[in-house]
Amino acid sequence: MTQTMSEYFVAGGIFENPMGTERFDLVCAGPGEPPLVMAESVMHYFRLVWQNAHLYRVEKDYTLVLIVSSPEALERGVKAPPRVTPDQELLAKLQSVIKHEPSSPTPTSSQ
Questions:
Q1: More confidently predicted of 108 and 67
Q2: What's the number of domains the chain is made of?
């Protein structure tokens, strides 16, 4: 069975940096690391980061669609927009990580 883009999930939200600037970003394993991309494993999200971020599905065009918002993250001030169109920097990160996933689809593959 071929994977489709809708089988990839990421954790993210609108975070505020120490200077007060808000920006949508994805959860990474560490500073400078690529974003965590979870293939077919929503439970992985709940085990790792559900308290600090929201769950998004990566669409075929790399748009992110909110699947589950975390009440704990909302309480901490992490906003959860319902749909996110990644900027060029975030798009490049997503494409890089998904491209290197085993059995990952290409953006031009049909569903």
A1: 67
A2: 1
